[in-house]
Design brief:
elongated; 7 strands; single chain; alpha+beta; disordered N terminus
């Protein structure tokens, strides 16, 4: 290989490996659910996805039933599902696996998370007509709001958990009196709660 060719390879980064993206950590793996996913994916002809899919329980989940990570091919499930029913675990697993199937089939094409491709994948996995959200009795955490912002014009008070960065104006007043544009006349003033 000539020196000009080596220089060209260095200029374009050829020959040097791309930096790897850190893989997501799986909390508590569930080999039984993983096995079911592998079999289902194999039946759909998605063998490469079947080889890399991982399923686990994430104890930090509060209100979410499950979550799928693409391209990591990982599914996280809420352990509170175990207290509800086996059917709900299976439905949630199918719902999340359908996300992975839809993205795998789409390749590099952009798709909506709960779009047509996902709906087709749900039907292929045995849950046609699946909805995008659940109605399970999962309660979220209650966070105390520490900051309040007051509009001197309309007297509206906006409570927040975190402090706002920079200045902000009342959305309602800006929309009503400034055509939706930011207007300093309606600056929000921080007040203690």
């Amino acid at each position: 290989m000539g020196s000009w060719c080596r220089q060209l390879m260095l200029c374009f980064g050829a020959g040097s490996p791309e930096p790897k993206r850190a893989a997501r950590a799986l909390h508590e793996a569930d080999p039984e659910l993983e096995k079911w996913c592998r079999i289902s994916l194999g039946e759909l002809g998605l063998t490469s996805l079947a080889r890399k899919v991982r399923v686990g329980w994430n104890p930090r989940m509060r209100t979410t039933a499950g979550r799928a990570w693409w391209p990591d091919a990982m599914i996280e499930m809420n352990p509170r599902l175990k207290d509800i029913s086996e059917e709900e675990i299976q439905r949630t697993l199918c719902h999340e696996l359908a996300h992975l199937v839809a993205y795998e089939r789409a390749g590099r094409r952009r798709i909506k998370a709960h779009g047509v491709e996902w709906q087709v994948a749900c039907a292929d996995l045995g849950i046609p007509g699946e909805k995008a959200s659940h109605e399970l009795p999962f309660e979220g955490r209650k966070q105390q709001r520490k900051y309040a912002y007051h509009c001197n014009h309309c007297e509206e008070v906006i409570e927040r958990v975190r402090k706002m960065r920079g200045s902000a104006a009342c959305y309602t007043c800006c929309r009503k009196y400034a055509g939706g544009s930011y207007d300093e006349r309606f600056l929000l003033v921080e007040r203690k709660l």
